[in-house]
Amino acid sequence: MIGLKSIRKQLKLNQQKVAMDLHISREALSYYENGKREPSLALLVAMSQYFNVSINYLITGEEFKKR
Hints:
Number of helices: 5
Oligomer: single chain
Distance between the termini: 23 Å
Helix content: 55-70%
Strand content: under 5%
């Protein structure tokens, strides 16, 4: 999840703050950021709303491009 770590750092938020706001552990957030674990669809939606970015951005680090 390339975009997750990127957007968190752009907004200058630490893992603990984001994890608390999303009601997950800091360790779980770290695993998601490093690709060691995949979040549920519900958590992806919550992250997308929290950061105000698309789910595609959270996963790939790029916004969806129309053809």
